[in-house]
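Progress report, Aim 2. The chain analyzed during this reporting quarter is listed below.
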Amino acid sequence: MAGGALKYRHLSRKSSHRQALLRNLVTSLFAHESITTTWHKAKEAQRLAENLITLGKKNTNASRRRAESIFYEPLQHLPRLFTVLRDRYLNRPGGYTRVLRIEPMNKHYDQAPSAILELVDGPKDMRFHMTAKTLVRERATEQGVREITARNVNKVTRYRDGGVEELEKEVKRMEKQTRDEAFREVCYIIRLIFISQFCESRARWKVDEAPREGQRERQPRIRQ
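Predicted structure tokens for the chain:
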């Protein structure tokens, strides 16, 4: 029927091309844990990735055959889906992936809205690292950790195995990195001050050595 509700994004492609595109995106996602693409492609690939992880949690022969028909490299990604990722998301009721908006990748071409599609609770979980960075900044203030930050800490550690310990480890690493950056910045400023003072003293020395008015410039003696 004409004028019906749009059930999915066509992505300006025919059906076979669209399915091949989504399979390619999902295969790259499970290989690298995080991919960058346009917003609309990320939202469509997210649906397929969520279904794949659900198949991995079922762990039946039918789900294995279905997952094998989606992956472009099934021999490489099927064992990881039914072992590592299944154990990671076994207690999570849903929301295995996350889409984060970013600036357009092609700024000088079409300005298409871009996004990052990632697997949550993984080594490249961006919200986990952003929460750790926020904790470092707020713990250094007098107000302490805000309520919204505490809720974010609960979100990123609730279904992660050893999430609190991993978050504290990441916070300590970022604190050390912040101290090292501050030390390098202080060293750079001291170096600039030393160079400026040296240049000023050299300029004054040249002014003092310049011949005065009415005085001839001293000629170097040449040995014969």
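The radius of gyration is 30 Å. The first strand starts at residue 34 and ends at 38. These observations will guide the mutagenesis work planned for the next reporting period.
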